[in-house]
Amino acid sequence: MIVVTGATGNVGEALVQGLAARGEKVVALSRGVKESRHREGVEYRRADLSDSDELAAAAAGGDALFLLLSGEQGVFGPPPSEVLRAIERAGVRKVVLLGSQSAETRPGNAAAPRITAFEAALRDSGLTWTILRPSGFFSNTFAWAESVRAQRAVHWPFGDIALPQIDPSDIAEAAAAALCSDEHAGHAYTLTGPEPISPREQVRDLGRALGEPITFHELTRAQAFSAISEYMPAPVAEVTLSILGTPTPAEQQVSPDVEKVLGRPATPFASWAARHADAFR
Ligand SMILES: NC(=O)c1ccc[n+]([C@@H]2O[C@H](COP(=O)([O-])OP(=O)(O)OC[C@H]3O[C@@H](n4cnc5c(N)ncnc54)[C@H](OP(=O)(O)O)[C@@H]3O)[C@@H](O)[C@H]2O)c1
User: Fold this and answer.
1) What value does the mean pLDDT of the chain take?
2) Percent of the chain at pLDDT exceeding 90
3) From its phi and psi, is residue 27 left (phi > 0), alpha (psi between -120 and 50) or beta?
4) Are 269 and 197 in contact (CB under 8 A)?
């Protein structure tokens, strides 16, 4: 049985679906999940990662677990060793951790110390482990949905700076591969999209997916900071804008790891946009 935390999010939802489609028995965990929800092969259980006893109880019976530290759990929360001990108490023997490429490229980033500490604790834990370090997600463009729906417009900074962002479903597929076989044990993978793509190009692809043009309005960094700090903490907004505006060479590079793990190239943004166009209509 495989336990998926963050099971209702961009990566987790796709992972639950993918594991169930492979015929795996899945336990899907989050705080807000409805335990009455039903999907063939999936049991939904409620748990808050900030409560290690609750996590241990909810993960009971799992052989492998996907660990996603979302929101404030990415910055605060119980010490990594306590969380991993709770997972071991549940009987789990393998953990696939969702980290972040930026913890490597931006060690000063607000979330980096906790992710780095989780990676270190997992390596030392005696559990079988795989670490996934993705670049920025295509799903971050959901932040544009409201203005696309209302005005067919996107207001965003750094229109022509291209980064190899990734489809969360590719991360989910890599996680499923690591959870279901021992081939990826002891590996840390940097997961990126297939090519660098700029916000202006993403807006063009979204317009094609909608069948209507979308106008791109370039914001200054200061304008963008005040817009995005409405929905993310200021230190996270700062590092996000630094990655988007002044990426390091490592952040601009396409990693071979998605292809190595999945045996196919990473999914392009245009395909993600076509699958998610309804969210922007
Ligand atoms: N977005 C990016 O560009 C990017 C880049 C690199 C790495 N990452 C990493 O990706 C992760 C976010 O993935 P995502 O986009 O799939 O997440 P998401 O869509 O924001 O979903 C978060 C999931 O975690 C659950 N959750 C949140 N807080 C929880 C808690 N305290 N206890 C239990 N469950 C909790 C949520 O459900 P409930 O609210 O119901 O609990 C939901 O299922 C983060 O770890 C982030 O560091 C993101």
Assistant:
1) 96
2) 91
3) beta
4) yes
